[in-house]
Design a protein that fits this description.
- Two copies of one chain form a homodimer.
- Chain A is mainly alpha-helical.
- The first copy, chain A, is 66% helix and 0% strand.
- Chain A contains ten helices and no strands.
- The longest helix of chain A is centred in the last third of the chain and has 24 residues, at 130-153.
- The relative contact order of chain A is 0.09.
- The interface between A and B is large, with 61 and 61 residues.
- Chain A binds a DNA duplex through residues 1-6, 29-31, 39-43, 45-46, 50-51.
Chain lengths: 204, 204
Amino acid sequence: MPRPRSLTRNQLAAAALAVIDREGLAGLSMRAVAKELGASTMALYRYVQDREELEGLVVDRVLGAMDTEPPDPAAPWQERVEVLVRRMRDAVSAHPSVAPLTVTHRHRSPVGLRWAETVLAVLTEAGIDGERRVVALRGLLGYVIGAIQLEHLGPLSGRGTDVIAELPPSAFPYLSATARQAREVGPEAEFLGGLALLLRGLTA
Amino acid sequence: MPRPRSLTRNQLAAAALAVIDREGLAGLSMRAVAKELGASTMALYRYVQDREELEGLVVDRVLGAMDTEPPDPAAPWQERVEVLVRRMRDAVSAHPSVAPLTVTHRHRSPVGLRWAETVLAVLTEAGIDGERRVVALRGLLGYVIGAIQLEHLGPLSGRGTDVIAELPPSAFPYLSATARQAREVGPEAEFLGGLALLLRGLTA
DNA sequence: GATGTAGGCGTACGCCGTACACCAACCAGC
DNA sequence: GCTGGTTGGTGTACGGCGTACGCCTACATC
């Protein structure tokens, strides 16, 4: 016989994501999300235990935008893994500011877990199991998370690259040269190139 | 003819790092660092423009603990890169809580830049240059940063693994099995295994 | 000893997350 | 259609945060 709820956890997640997209991760606050929803700050706490849980909802929402259909079973397994990893990157890249949150909340996101399960299925089908499979998943996950953050936070391509490219070549000959070259590669090619390295190492 | 300073930026960095090691990254605050130094909060602002710059000092101090001598030139280049990457990981692992800061402040840390320069020198000597070199550095950097954070924040090995290992095998057969296997691999072997994948991919 | 420069500090403001107590909206039972 | 119990929404308040601002004073110089 209680009073019915006027919001949903989904709406909270959407509002929080809107705030983040608009004002950056630093702009995320309980007050800002409440204002976005036209509710009082404390109302949020009827849906979520604390700020951290709200962040978890955001991550799950972002990852939830990934395609979930299994990749073409006729394709070679490397290609299937690439498809899956690309989906993850695309999903996070659509909301770059949430990247840091994915690190801390990934293992509590159902969508993220489902993604990992799919990757493991492909790896297993490729004959990779036991310790090799552990290392493979960890390597892929580490690379994806690290590369995405690099791309949007302290990048070798992006605004940061300009700073590095302007370093004195006398002190940093290779680094300044590489930074200049990096500007002509583009983030997508860089990301996929690194992934290709991993997959090739996994194949050998 | 001014009054002499009673602190150094180095002392600030040391105090901040002590706070972080003791209370975690969340415990870092200007007030806490000031108390650690027996000074007033506002005194810190005579040495540092804002909190972000203080964080930068901490990162540089952590990375500054790395060995800087060039790795044995007689060793194969893969081994030399491994040595360099290991040094980075060891330095950050000594203060796990600062891992998230390294992402955002890496490209402003002189020590970090010097490290990248050394890695690039080895890669170049190995005949890797142009776009391949860009991709290689980016891949290594992404992997290192991602893997370190995974290890200490949302790990596939560590406390988080237990949660994943307890997932219902009916819904997550591969994931729960892999998490159980991961407990017997150990973080060091996982990290080096992933790195070996990258290096093998780079060799082919 | 006087003087000017700059370092250290106290105070205050506007943010933050959230504990707590209150009120009112709603549904079930009559 | 009324009433009662339950629970959702809210206002207030507290302790902490980063830091702008202005004061005072310790010092090196003359």
